[in-house]
């Protein structure tokens, strides 16, 4: 009866508001594009970037009481771990062009503030009709409220409001278009009564209506101790909803703090990340494009926070891909850490053996690769710790074109304090436990802000920017509250009113984009906007729910720095429409309307063709080598890195005499070594290697295929590794197997090798004395149970198939040189004699110059290798990266994305000494913070080994404040042996005109994880040397977590020493897990270098190189005499048409636990083809030959 007239009045009011807005929008001749000038920057420059706007002047007067007695009684546990925060929603509910603010109160009334302009707001809560909702204003208190979300649920162009409550029906307020709202949750199917946290609206099925994911937490610790199920509701198209949780495959119990829509695989369909606290693991729901979802967290991420809190998305490195950040509770200082989370880390369990992602006690910064697999860079970026964090928001706060980070922090009590936990756990009753907690101080902490400096570097900016308010802050939301084109901030606080901060940025141009959907939802939620300026690309995706319990103004903000215009702006709508605009001026608000025409069929972004293809199955190279776990902490309780599980090794060489490469894959006590023989049809055949198996607790170490006995065929030298047996156990003795043709590999005579029971880390062969026989360096990796004392290493001279230890005679300093991880025979000084280059843990790169076969001298300092510093070096590879005709050397190191940091001023330290005073030895790790020497281990860990520590520091709080000298005594530290690391970056030693070498670090993005296997050469056929590395290490004890953030890195050389990182989406090279050896070989015999990778307790991976463009590649194989049939030690140089050259050496042993093919590969670009090949043979002779046009293989015989 009255409904038609009421609807007519509503429509008229809405049209009048729209007309009023359009009156201020400048006409634009481009279809779908309108613009609006930004408000002028008023007043004098402020002292800081953000200025507080007092409630008395703004009118935003709120309270946030927590006065429900049940919070400290029957609902204590639920309150403590779940529904503690409150949120904010910012949006222009009345369509007047000014964003309004809704603020949640925990047990008091929520409030809506209408933006009147000029930083004046009116409380319109009563006018808006919220009081009509059941439960609103209940006395003496309301049920707990949580999150709030502005979203247009019925697609009428007006923002509606959804408010989540705890154990009470959620509210859905439908915007009536006349300044009022009507609560309709039950009528529309959304009156959920659960532990509701926040609603995340998104059009997941791309039908034009906003759907809803409802994140929950703990409802009843007694009935449901693991949490609740989350909900997924599909929009029926009329603003009503259907619960499709089961149908969509959403399952599992959660204790969520945030749920964020994030297209992690860049396929154009919104996926969903759910951040869960405590035991329930985070979930990453991949959108299957058919209305269903699959949790792919283990396939996509290397690890996830254990206590996941707020989360947000954005392109932090400006590579055009949307990244993701999830907060934990990691402490930002040593003192905070040692009294809280360090004790929790000390109780961490060992890693799962099923390959699943682990939970870690620090923040995660996931960098999208565009492949459905992410890397993680929180430590590298300086964002691993942000204290007890709630909301995290990635926005460009200073308008410089890079996303910065804002974090709200604090807690109602320091409930993770180890001393407080101990008092609570030993209390006599539940009532007493709650009383102790309630009587402890509130954990008031400064909020944090980090400025993005570019290149994955962030610096703390909270104090400088005025964003360091001390207190307990929860949900936060951004919006351009004054229309000047920068982002202002509102967040809620524990037991006090909300904070409102005005962004007073006066630098940096800006652009604000407002979307109006036609075929898509009306606000363009889910759309992606990309822009290009002379400074580079930027991308934003419109996602409503971000951070914690909050939604921001539904606009996209771009800081442009000094750029005055945008060259190109592209909008990709959820419907499939794409719009492109060019030559847009900065400093304006763009209103972009989606075309009304039927959109083209959505196919998603095209996947680029990759250079490499994984062919493990096709090549029959899927082999798993599993380890038997060993508890190494029994012998060395404070061991930082476990010494077992270092392989498996790979060795490539011709075992059958057919001229093609076969493969040796090292074994373990659980899975025997394998001989994989090349076949004419392509796949590799598993050859019987039973003779290599033995009953032992040791895993195989590095292996070599070379002619040990001078008969012209390759034999096998096999070492042992790890710490499965005590030091000097007979099973550590290397074993030599001679190739007896049809009889296979047979054990050599017992006296073929001297007694050297070494846990090996490196093995390399060359004819160092030019007697025609291949000699060997055997590098010791560790002394079992004695880490980090240097083990034995040895130089073995081949005396006609029998090897003698000549270390003392030729290079006595090699005997105890340190923990050897890689060895490379290479002619560093270009005198024709192979020198020895070594990588060490707790040491420098060492260069031992060959004095023409008479001995070796250490020239590490003189040649510049030592100048790089002491590190945890892992691997070595050689190539001429700078094109000067001399070989340069790549060295893999720990990287910059772990808890460890090192510099000459603040090195990483390990002390080994008698700290107990009992005549034994213990080791203690240490580091510097603000010039203070501090222990890495917590009170409980050190106290277990040094009981005096517990007596001296009876509380965790006291221990946390103490320096290491105060804890163990300065005299004991002075008397201890000290191991030092000053450089953790991987890099390249480039040859200099003066004959020295200069260390140049690899790009920061290549420092994401420890580099293990390493290979150098021309992989893309452009005539310039490239570098490929595989990464990660599962050696760290659980206290530190796995170093597993990498997926491998391919860097293209520019011929002048520069190396540029290539995207995995472009290369096709993705290596997850505990990658170890990396062998270069030609799997399909097409002249392009392919790769074979081993992974500890995981399958091998083979990658075929498909080449690039018009370029060709060819492999060169040398035929030497018996004793050295593949000419190991030869130097090959290819000259190109323009006179430039590329060089390579035939090496037996390089990288990490690796021997690559004796074939050397060279590219031949179409415009600069290879012309001439020159060889300097191991004995000093030289020869040359022209390179046949478009040859795949070249074979040269020794003169």
UniProtKB/TrEMBL annotation:
InterPro entries registered for this protein in UniProt: Crtac1, FG-GAP, Integrin_alpha_N, UnbV_ASPIC
Keywords: Signal
Region called Disordered, residue ranges: 1178-1199
This protein's record includes keyword NAD: no
Lineage: superkingdom: Bacteria
The ASPIC/UnbV domain, residue ranges: 524-590, 1127-1184
Record's signal peptide: 1-27
This protein's name: RNA-binding protein
